[in-house]
Write a structure and sequence with these properties.
The structure is a homodimer. Chain A is α+β, with helices and mostly antiparallel strands. Helices cover 30% and strands 26% of the residues of chain A. In chain A, helix 3 crosses helix 4. Chain B binds a DNA duplex through helix 4.
DNA sequence: ATAGGGCTGCAATGGTATTGCAAACTACGG
DNA sequence: CCGTAGTTTGCAATACCATTGCAGCCCTAT
């Protein structure tokens, strides 16, 4: 199991340290995007700053992408597959459930093409939907 | 002129105080969405907290909407037209130019319909595009 | 005139990212 | 096996930013 985790990191050119393996393992267990504070609580008693830097490195290397769901703190989730360092390909919709307050990636919902005014060039698109998720529908 | 400003506030059931008129006037002069710090600098030497509360009230009453462009601080812009207290209708695209670092409302670019998975109900949609705006194209 | 409610300004709090620095660790060449 | 260089980690400190409490002010209605 741990072996597989190491491979993942190596494949992204990230030195597989104990801390990073722990964070990666924790991320793999999540069903939704989580904040730095969530990681901190799940991996007690780890240092917050270290976790911050681990996630930052993961982001730089294209292992995770961060989502700003308006909660103030960024959420992190593992990238699908084909993200390379520096260029993310996560053109999917992010969903924030106002009931359970979970942020999740709707990898199957692609972001539709957006028509921009003349002279505007798009580099990155982020679509955030808020509402009620399937688990919280009454 | 000031008379017109008062009308705007009254129409939204906001007591027209000096401070609020100033903020509204400042907002009307902007061509892009601005942060609380921007307002503070433009209206020196005003108290930041007061401006914060003014903007908050404007938001509650449907006069302005706030945009989270990922810069850490929310940006504010006047609502188009028919926003009512509590329910915003700003289904337009927000654009962040990575060159001039300005956030603007593309009121003509409507957010396309998003297909959500079964069981998901959408209440609010936010589409943030990052790239280069027409003024910054080489 | 006065009492009450809304508005403002100041001070203080709390949560967050972010950086500097020194200790710990790791990989590697002798 | 040892030491060294580079990476990683943990701690302390800093810097924003939103948000709240409180006290004084203004305006209005009675």
């Amino acid at each position: 199991m741990i072996k597989g985790l190491e491979d993942i990191l190596n494949h992204k050119s990230i030195n597989p340290t104990a801390m990073r393996l722990l964070v990666l393992e924790f991320l793999l267990k999540q069903s939704s995007a989580i904040s730095l504070t969530d990681v901190e609580k799940g991996l007690e008693p780890s240092d917050r700053v270290t976790l911050y830097r681990v996630l930052k490195k993961f982001g730089e290397k294209g292992l995770v992408h961060s989502i700003d769901d308006g909660s103030g703190a960024p959420k992190y989730a593992l990238c699908a597959e084909d993200c390379v360092a520096g260029h993310h390909h996560d053109f999917h919709v992010h969903f924030f459930c106002t009931a359970c307050r979970e942020t999740s990636c709707l990898t199957k919902s692609k972001i539709p093409q957006v028509v921009l005014p003349e002279g505007f060039a798009s580099e990155e698109v982020n679509l955030m939907v808020k509402g009620t998720c399937s688990k919280c529908i009454p």
